[in-house]
Design a protein that fits this description.
about 110 residues, mainly alpha, about 70% helix
């Protein structure tokens, strides 16, 4: 079940190494999900694209939570602060891009690439 995944688990101790959470769950999986959204942009209806966008935004929120609670699983504390700062910037960017892509889809605009 989705709510039992590490993204939404109640564990706040953070047992996963930061590099796995940041690079695999954060960067790789987020890019695959966003790439899927871009691939399906012109092929799905607006409600379906809205659902894809909602899934991406929820996943992004879960990743921010995971990185936040696992940030101290590193030897160098400086990486904790860098990972958290980069994640906040990524979340803001992902939210803005998602909103604008959805509005463009709803208005019937072609993919702006």
């Amino acid at each position: 079940m989705l709510l039992e995944s590490p993204l939404f688990s109640p564990d706040t101790r953070g047992r996963t190494p930061l590099w796995i959470v940041f690079w695999v769950y954060g960067v790789l999986a987020s890019h695959l999900l966003f790439g899927t959204m871009l691939t399906l942009y012109a092929r799905v209806s607006t409600p379906v694209f809205g659902a894809l966008t909602a899934v991406f935004v929820l996943y992004t929120a879960g990743i921010m939570r995971l990185i936040w609670i696992n940030a101290f699983n590193v030897r160098n504390e400086w990486l904790t602060h860098v990972s958290r700062a980069l994640t906040v910037v990524w979340v803001l960017n992902a939210l803005l891009v998602s909103v604008f892509l959805f509005l463009g889809h709803a208005a019937g605009q072609a993919l702006p690439l």
